[in-house]
Specification:
The protein is mostly helical. It is built from 7 helices and no strands. Helix 3 crosses helix 7. The longest helix has 22 residues.
Length: about 130
């Protein structure tokens, strides 16, 4: 009887642990069609990447750090950040990255009023792609 009870409790514990881990998954971003259709204007231009780096250091580094979500503020956030240096992130279409970076959601704040110039916004996207 003790073996049966122990086995049952172990299974219940394992199931609750797995359901907790599964619930920690981030919801997929819902990107509006007008953003999905957006394309970067000056892809990979050295001057744009340099400008993007300057803006990234000012607005993004405190959370995103080196791009791996290792910034000083990262640990205080409710959600973990994706590594933006990976090929998977780089494969995200330009307009979707733009939406994520400037419209945001949850712990990712809206930057539309902080970075108002379109050239500067795209420069940050260029810099992200260069990481």
């Amino acid at each position: 009887m003790k073996k049966f009870l122990f086995t049952t409790l172990t299974i219940v514990f394992a199931m609750s642990l797995f359901s907790f881990i599964a619930s920690e998954k981030k919801p997929a971003w819902v990107i509006p069609a007008n953003y999905k259709a957006m394309k970067i204007q000056k892809k990979g231009d050295a001057a744009s990447i340099a400008l993007g780096k300057t803006l990234y250091l000012k607005h993004c580094k405190s959370c995103h750090g080196s791009g791996k979500g290792d910034g000083a503020k990262a640990a205080s956030l409710k959600t973990t950040m994706d590594d933006i240096t990976t090929p998977a992130f780089k494969a995200i279409p330009d307009g979707e990255k733009y939406y994520m970076a400037f419209v945001g959601r949850g712990d990712m704040p809206n930057f539309e009023k902080k970075v108002v110039d379109e050239e500067e916004r795209w420069a940050i996207i260029n810099y992200l792609d260069s990481l």
